[in-house]
Design a protein that fits this description.
The chain is α+β, with helices and mostly antiparallel strands. Helix content is about 30%, strand content about 30%. The protein has five helices and eleven strands, in the order E-H-H-H-E-E-E-E-E-H-H-E-E-E-E-E. It is globular and about 50 Å long.
Length: about 210
């Protein structure tokens, strides 16, 4: 099963509610969240953890956030082959993807104007040609970017893998001879969201919007 939880946090949580939700987390995670310089980043991180808590409960997993472990690359995980998750946030949205089928990575990016030429070296010649020839080069740029980011997050090594070494072909990503399957999620206007998995998603994806 693959479930996508997401939340919109246009409004800032007041101090009391923020504190209430923060107290639901283990001390180590509370300390991490309070280190953020900007309240928006702290709130996004907090909401991501709350989405994960809900996902674990819905999937009837016995794990709690205190059981989180971290790989040598800093990727959080549970000591189980039966559950994997990944969290991303951008703008006013947070998304948490959970899977009981295999590894999963998710990336969410707000489609903001940028000079895409500054990132030319992160793309293959074929990818770059597809971006430049697109009717909407900026949107196509973010399509590839989120695909690559989701893939390295699913892999677990994150940006220790150069994005230029992740090759995107249609709905598939390649890191050398390792194959990842991509799913482009049309969830929010002016945002690009993709998930990468090491399995083909055969069943219908489950989406859940959560309010805080």
């Amino acid at each position: 099963m693959t479930i996508i939880y997401y939340a919109n946090f246009v409004k800032e949580l007041n101090h009391t509610i923020f504190g209430y939700y923060l107290d639901l987390l283990p001390l180590s995670l509370r300390q991490q969240i309070l280190k953020f310089k900007y309240r928006q980043d702290a709130q996004a991180s907090l909401i991501g953890k709350l989405l994960l808590i809900k996902g674990l409960k819905d999937l009837q997993q016995d794990y709690e956030l205190i059981d989180l472990k971290y790989s040598v690359f800093g990727r959080p995980y549970f000591q189980s082959a039966h559950i994997d998750f990944n969290i991303s946030h951008a703008g006013c949205y947070v998304i948490c993807a959970l899977s009981t089928c295999g590894r999963i990575g998710v990336d969410l990016e707000e489609t903001k104007p940028i000079i895409i030429e500054n990132f030319r070296d992160q793309f293959s010649n074929a990818e770059w040609e597809d971006i430049k020839s697109s009717k909407n080069p900026l949107d196509k740029f973010y399509f590839y970017w989120t695909a690559k980011e989701a893939t390295v997050k699913a892999d677990g090594r994150g940006l220790n893998i150069l994005l230029k070494n992740v090759e995107i072909k249609k709905n598939t990503a390649f890191i050398k001879d390792k194959i990842w399957h991509l799913t482009d999620l049309k969830l929010f206007k002016n945002y690009n969201v993709q998930i990468a998995t090491n399995y083909r998603i055969e069943e219908k994806l489950i989406f859940q919007s959560v309010k805080f």
